[in-house]
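Below sits my pick:
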Amino acid sequence: MPGLPARLLVLVAALAACTERDPLDSDTVTDSTGMSEGTGASTDGGTTAPPSTTDEPPTGSIPGDPTTTPTSEPATTGPNQPDLSHAVHIQPIWDANCVVGCHTPGGTSHAWFVLSDNAFASIVERPALELPQMMLVAPGDLDGSYLWHKVTGLHIEVGGSGVLMPPAPADALSTGDLDTIAQWILQGCPP
């Protein structure tokens, strides 16, 4: 499955293993932790991913983890994901991480774009100043959304410049926030 993050592939493999084999099968050996060997299922009916058997480092966009490499693919997208809106789900991320002192009128980054109040009109289908041939946010297109590359640290790879946003010493966006932003973009950027 090209393009899927390694963590998602492990989860898919674990779920496939759970459906192929009955966790209560007599051939299954249960250890003292309640895990059934080979099935990825616990004896209490819950499921867990089996440990990785590869020597490859995990990939993903876990901020602050030097063993991971950001990817353009979010960890959670799909047809069963809830509909998101900029006003309810995305603006709070900007407010908590990007507005104070930076992307607000009079802030250090207000010339690039403003994220305070309702940033929707400032970012959706607007050209990126650091890479004008790319939109800041292109509805339905993560790879065509420069803001996505800036918050995942992939902006240099697509021809952009500058630093990861938010910049150090601020914490990078959490994996949950990144997943929410990605899902919103892939859903077409509802206001």
In short: The beta strands are 35-36, 41-42. The mean pLDDT is 72.
